C-alpha cells in the first residue's frame, strides 16, 4: 500500500489534533490551579498562588499522600512476591489447568473495579466479619497489582530461556542458589518495571478503594473525591492534580529508561 | 603426523558438598519438578483463590440472600427475590440499557478515534516520531483518573473553556449529563484502546501491504482486505477495555453526569446508603453476565491474547 502525500498529511493532522484534545483538559487544570476563581471559570479572572500555598499547608492532603504511599508500597511488595512466583510457575512448567491459572491472574483487572470492590467488601464485612481497615485496602490492591508484575516477569522469562539456569544446576548450584545468582539478576529490571506500574495502579485506584477502605482511611484519590465538590477546596484539588502529573514524570522517565536499555541490549 | 599423548589437564578436586539439611532439600527439589511447581503455586493460588475467587463466588451467593428490613442484618434465607427485582424492575432495565448504550457509544467513539492514530503511529510515522507519539499517548495514562474526570468537569462547565471556545460560533457546552459522560469516558479509556490497536497494526508486515499495492490494490482496498482483518483481534482487545471499564463506572458519571445513573451508581447506593448488599450483588451480576458473554463471543477471534 502506498499512501499518497495528501493521505499521509491528513493522518498526521488528525493524529496531532486528537493528541491536542487529549492534552487540553490537563492544561486547563494547570491554569485553574493559579486562578482566582473558585468555580473553574474560563478564562481565569486573575492570577494567584494562594491555592498552591494552601495545598502544601493542607494537613488532610499530606496525610492522604502518606496513606496512599504506604498502601502502594505494601501492595506492590506483595504483588512482586506473588507475581514472580506465578510467572516462574506458568513459564517454566506445563501443567493441567495452566490456562485457568492464567485467566485467574488477569481476571481482577479484566472485570470492572466495582465488581472486585463489592465482592471484597462483601467478603470482608459479611462473610469474614473483619472490619474494613487500611489492611483490607492493601489486600484488595495487591490482588489486582499481581498482574502487572506477572506480565513483565513472564515476558522476561520467556526471552531468557533456561540455558543459564540448566548450566547453573549442572555445576552443582542448588535450586535457591540458581534463583539468587542466575535467574533473579536477569529478572530484576523487569520486576522493577512491573512494580512501578503496580505502584502507580495502587496509588491512583479509587473504586476498589472506596469499597474496601475502613472509616478514617483516606487515600489521596478518596481525599480528592471528597474535596472536589467543595468550592473552597476545588482549586486545591487542581494543585494536587498538577503535582501528581508532574510527579508521574518520574515513573514515566524510569519506565522509558528501563525499556530503552532493554532495546539496546537486544 | 606424529602421535602425541594428550595428558588430561590438571584438575582440582571439588569437595563434595556436605549433606546439610538445606542441601538435601535442594537436591530433592531439583529431581522433583512437581514439588517445585507446588511450592511456586501454593502462595499465589492461596491468595487469588481465597481472596478473589471465594469473594466472587460468595458475591454470587449473597445475591440469593436477603436483608431483614428491621435490623438491617443479612438473612441467609435462599430467595430469588433480588434476581427477580433486578430482572423485572423497570428502573434496572432502564439503567442497564442506558449503561450498555453508553458503553457501546464509548467503544465505537474510541475505536473510530484510535484507528487513524494507531495507523499513523504504526505505519506512517518515522521511528523517531513513533517513539514520541507512544510517550504522548502513554503520558495521560499516568495522570490520575480522578484528575482527568475532574478536568472534564472544568472543561464542560457553563463557565468553562468549551463554552468560551464555542460561544463565538453560536454553540454551547453540552453541560453535565449523558453526553458529558460519554465524552469523558471516551477520553479516559482512549489510551487503553490506542495501545493494543497500535501493537496489533505494528505486527502487520509491510511486505503484505506492498504486495497488495503491487497487485493493484488501492489504499482503501488494502486497508479493507489486509489491514483490518489482521488487526481485528487487537481492535477487539481494545474494545474489551473500553466496554468493561465503562460498564462498571460510577465515579465519572457522578462527576460529569449530572443526575444520570449507571449500573455502578445503583450498586454503590445499595452497598452504602441503602445497606442492601444482597440487592447490590444481584445488580452487580448484570455487568458480570454481560462481560462474560462478550468475552465468550470474542474468544474465538484470539482477542484475549492481545490484552
Describe this structure in words.
The complex is a heterodimer of chains A (266) and B (307). With 266 residues, chain A is mostly helical. Chain A has one domain: MetI-like (MetI-like fold), CATH 1.10.3720. Chain A is 79% helix and 0% strand. Chain A has eleven helices and no strands. In chain A, helix 3 (59-92) packs across helix 10 (220-227). Residues 261-266 of chain A have low confidence and may be disordered. With 307 residues, chain B is mainly alpha-helical. Chain B has a domain at 93-275: Orthogonal Bundle (MetI-like fold), CATH 1.10.3720.10. In chain B, 71% of the residues lie in helices and 1% in strands. Chain B contains 13 helices and two strands. Chain B has helices at residues 21-31, 33-62, 81-88, 90-124, 127-142, 145-156, 161-166, 178-202, 206-214, 219-247, 251-256, 263-271, 277-298; strands spanning 66-67, 74-75. Chain B has a two-stranded antiparallel sheet with strand order 1-2. In chain B, helix 8 crosses helix 10 (219-247). Chain B is extended. The relative contact order of chain B is 0.11. At the A-B interface, helix 1, helix 3, helix 4, helix 5 and helix 6 of A face helix 1, helix 2, helix 4, helix 5 and helix 6 of B.
Amino acid at each position: 500500500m502506498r499512501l499518497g502525500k495528501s493521505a499521509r498529511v491528513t493522518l498526521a493532522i488528525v493524529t496531532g489534533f486528537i493528541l491536542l484534545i487529549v492534552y487540553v483538559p490537563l492544561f486547563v487544570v494547570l491554569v485553574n490551579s493559579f486562578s482566582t476563581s473558585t468555580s473553574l471559570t474560563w478564562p481565569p479572572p486573575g492570577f494567584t498562588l494562594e491555592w498552591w500555598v494552601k495545598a502544601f499547608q493542607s494537613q488532610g492532603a499530606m496525610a492522604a499522600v502518606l496513606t496512599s504511599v504506604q498502601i502502594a508500597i505494601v501492595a506492590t511488595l506483595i504483588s512482586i512476591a506473588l507475581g514472580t512466583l506465578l510467572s516462574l510457575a506458568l513459564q517454566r512448567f506445563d501443567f493441567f489447568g495452566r490456562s485457568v491459572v492464567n485467566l485467574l491472574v488477569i481476571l481482577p483487572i479484566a472485570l470492572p473495579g466495582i465488581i472486585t470492590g463489592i465482592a471484597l467488601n462483601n467478603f470482608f464485612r459479611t462473610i469474614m466479619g473483619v472490619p474494613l481497615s487500611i489492611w483490607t485496602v492493601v489486600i484488595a490492591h495487591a490482588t489486582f497489582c499481581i498482574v502487572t508484575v506477572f506480565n513483565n516477569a513472564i515476558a522476561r522469562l520467556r526471552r531468557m530461556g533456561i540455558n543459564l539456569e540448566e548450566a547453573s544446576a549442572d555445576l552443582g548450584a542448588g535450586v535457591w542458589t540458581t534463583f539468587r545468582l542466575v535467574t533473579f539478576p536477569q529478572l530484576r529490571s523487569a520486576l522493577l518495571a512491573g512494580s512501578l506500574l503496580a505502584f502507580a495502579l495502587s496509588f491512583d485506584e479509587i473504586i476498589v478503594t472506596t469499597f474496601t477502605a475502613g472509616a478514617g482511611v483516606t487515600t489521596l484519590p478518596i481525599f480528592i473525591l471528597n474535596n472536589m465538590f467543595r468550592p473552597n477546596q476545588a482549586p486545591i484539588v487542581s494543585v494536587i492534580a498538577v503535582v501528581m502529573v508532574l510527579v508521574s514524570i518520574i515513573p514515566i522517565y524510569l519506565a522509558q529508561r528501563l525499556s530503552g536499555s532493554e532495546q539496546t541490549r537486544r | 603426523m606424529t602421535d602425541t599423548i594428550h595428558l588430561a589437564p590438571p584438575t582440582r578436586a571439588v569437595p563434595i558438598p556436605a549433606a546439610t539439611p538445606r542441601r538435601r532439600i535442594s537436591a530433592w527439589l531439583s529431581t522433583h519438578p512437581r514439588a517445585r511447581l507446588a511450592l511456586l503455586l501454593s502462595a499465589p493460588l492461596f491468595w487469588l483463590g481465597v481472596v478473589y475467587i471465594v469473594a466472587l463466588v460468595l458475591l454470587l451467593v449473597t445475591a440469593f440472600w436477603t436483608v431483614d428490613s428491621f435490623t438491617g442484618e443479612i438473612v441467609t434465607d435462599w430467595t430469588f427475590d433480588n434476581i427477580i427485582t433486578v430482572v423485572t424492575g423497570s428502573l434496572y432495565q432502564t439503567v442497564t440499557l442506558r449503561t450498555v448504550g453508553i458503553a457501546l457509544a464509548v467503544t465505537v467513539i474510541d475505536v473510530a478515534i484510535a484507528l487513524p492514530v494507531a495507523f499513523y503511529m504504526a505505519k506512517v510515522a518515522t521511528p523517531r516520531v513513533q517513539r514520541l507519539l507512544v510517550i504522548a499517548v502513554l503520558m495521560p495514562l499516568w495522570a490520575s483518573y480522578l484528575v482527568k474526570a475532574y478536568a472534564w468537569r472544568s472543561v464542560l462547565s457553563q463557565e468553562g473553556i468549551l463554552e468560551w471556545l464555542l460561544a463565538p460560533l453560536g454553540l454551547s457546552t453540552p453541560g453535565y449529563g449523558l453526553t458529558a459522560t460519554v465524552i469523558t469516558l471516551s477520553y479516559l479509556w482512549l489510551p487503553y484502546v490506542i495501545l493494543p490497536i497500535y501493537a496489533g497494526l505494528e505486527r502487520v508486515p509491510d511486505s503484505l501491504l506492498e504486495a497488495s499495492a503491487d497487485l493493484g490494490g488501492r489504499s482503501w482496498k488494502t486497508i479493507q482486505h489486509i489491514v483490518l482483518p489482521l488487526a481485528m483481534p487487537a481492535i477487539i482487545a481494545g474494545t474489551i477495555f473500553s466496554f468493561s471499564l465503562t460498564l462498571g463506572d460510577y465515579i465519572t458519571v457522578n462527576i460529569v453526569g449530572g443526575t444520570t445513573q449507571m449500573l455502578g451508581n445503583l450498586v454503590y447506593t445499595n452497598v452504602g446508603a441503602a445497606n442492601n448488599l444482597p440487592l447490590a450483588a444481584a445488580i452487580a451480576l448484570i455487568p458480570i453476565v454481560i462481560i462474560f458473554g462478550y468475552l465468550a463471543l470474542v474468544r474465538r477471534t484470539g482477542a484475549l491474547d492481545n490484552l
